[in-house]
Structures are given as structure tokens and as C-alpha cells.
Design brief:
Elements lengths: L8 H11 L7 H5 L7 E4 L2 E4 L5 H21 L4 E4 L3 E5 L2 E3 L3 E4 L5 E2 L2 E3 L4 E5 L5 H15 L3 E6 L4 E6 L4 E6 L3 E3 L7 E3 L9
Parallel strand pairs: 4-8, 9-10
Antiparallel strand pairs: 1-2, 3-6, 4-5, 6-9, 7-8, 10-11, 11-12, 13-14
């Protein structure tokens, strides 16, 4: 419709490789992109984002419901947000995590989140694996994110980085996965039943 077509994995990888040698970009450049184009900025380098696969969205929906229902019961200050919420980590880094929790409402404004969320979860896809596992993990840790999850729907695994305690743990979807920043929440991924292809 109106000339829009979803960005495919190969096209995203090609664009990202071509842009790696180009000039540094700014947050103003990212904010000026058309609404249907999603991109992240890490230390001035732009990374275009592909349209998520169905499994990615099913896993995001499951995790959103699990954490969302917990936060609703607790009635505390923490808020759950999900993609495409913008996170402005610094003047050269603008990220769009799959899911995030912010417990300091002063960090929220009409454009997104200013500073580090308390909790971030990223769901891997072929075009984001290296960025999620290395670049973004390091940026989140340095910015002060308390806990970072990397979920792999294909391998059915969750890697949990507890930056507060300085440790990481790996889980399969058959394990209960504790959400460390809350202490009394465990996500049971055995309940995750994606629709088959």
C-alpha cells in the first residue's frame, strides 16, 4: 500500500553492511525516517530493522502477558513497554528493544525512554543476533540496565544477564526463568505454545 513493502532479512543485512563504512548518523536522522522504517543507532552507526517473523511476535506476546499480568497485580511504579518504544541511551544511541520495564516514571516522555530501562528483553532474529548479543548487551550494561534477557525462539533458550549481580545464566524453555529485578516472578516457558507453520 502506497509503495510500502516490508524490509526482508537479506535487504537489512545488505543495508547494514553498506552503512557500516559511511558517516556517523544522529538521533535527528533516525527521528526523521518515515514511520514504516525502523532503525537503531549505536554510537552513530545506523542499523535498519527487518519485519519480525511470526515466532518472534508470538514469543513477544507471551512474555508481554506474563510480565504485564504480574505488574498489574503488584500495582507498583514499574511500567511495561514493547517495540517500537524508543530508548535514548545517550546522544549517539537510540534503541528499539522488543520489551522493556521502566520503574522510574521520570524517564518517560512522549518520545520514549530517556536513559536505561530497568529490564530489557530482546528476541533474536538472523539480522539482529550479533547486535543483540554483543553491541546492545554492552550498551545496556554500561548505561545501567539492571537485567537483560536474550531469547532465542528457534533454539528455545533464554540467556539472562543480571548486571546488578555481575552474573549470567542460561535457561531452556523447559526451565522456570526467574526475573531477578522482581524477586518473586518466574516465567514458565513450558506454557509457550506457538502456532505451528
Amino acid at each position: 500500500m502506497f509503495g510500502y513493502r516490508p524490509v526482508g532479512e537479506e535487504e537489512v543485512i545488505r543495508k547494514n553492511m553498506a552503512l557500516a563504512e559511511e558517516r556517523n548518523y544522529t538521533i535527528e536522522f533516525i527521528e526523521a525516517l518515515p514511520e514504516h522504517v525502523q532503525a537503531e543507532l549505536i554510537d552513530g552507526q545506523i542499523f535498519y530493522m527487518a519485519t519480525p517473523a511470526t515466532l518472534h511476535q508470538q514469543l513477544l506476546s507471551f512474555l508481554t502477558l506474563e510480565i504485564g499480568m504480574y505488574l498489574r497485580r503488584k500495582k507498583g511504579p514499574c511500567q511495561l513497554l514493547f517495540s517500537p518504544t524508543a530508548v535514548y541511551l545517550d546522544e549517539n544511541t537510540y534503541l528499539i528493544p522488543d520489551l522493556l520495564v521502566v520503574c522510574d516514571k521520570k524517564k518517560l516522555d512522549r518520545k520514549g525512554v530517556r536513559g536505561a530501562p530497568d529490564f530489557v528483553a530482546e528476541i533474536l532474529s538472523p539480522s539482529t543476533c550479533g547486535r543483540d548479543c554483543l553491541l546492545k548487551r554492552d550498551k545496556y550494561q554500561k548505561a545501567g540496565v539492571r537485567e537483560y534477557w536474550i531469547l532465542d525462539g528457534e533454539r528455545r533458550t533464554v540467556q539472562v544477564y543480571d548486571f546488578q549481580q555481575g552474573r549470567s545464566s542460561g535457561y531452556s524453555f523447559s526451565d522456570p526463568v526467574p526475573v531477578g529485578i522482581f524477586g518473586d516472578l518466574t516465567v514458565d516457558f513450558t506454557e509457550f505454545m506457538p502456532e505451528s507453520d
